[in-house]
Amino acid sequence: QVQLVESGGGLVQAGGSLRLSCAASGIIFSRNTMAWFRQAPGRQRELVAFITTTGSATYTDSVKGRFTISRDIAKNTVYLQMNSLKPEDTAVYYCNGRFAQYNWGQGTQVTVSS
Asked: Of 15, 45, 58, 63, most Cβ neighbours within 10 A?
């Protein structure tokens, strides 16, 4: 059974940084492209970034140059380093497979104040 546990969110001022973590069990990390998604109040969940099995990363335009996705295969953990945060980054952040093929975890709340 797949379990995804996100952590690392919090309240930060605009321009600040946070590092999110997602610990996964039941997934063979080396065989899966993993992704971060986010859902802001009143909006649909959107893909933020994903990292392939070869370590190649792709980002949505709004976070390019500010966010970095990485993974530790030995720890079955995927990270999202978020720098230069903006109020519009406020959302609940979730990890999942690239196509959201697993059950969602509880997410982690990121709130950026202006």
From this structure: 63
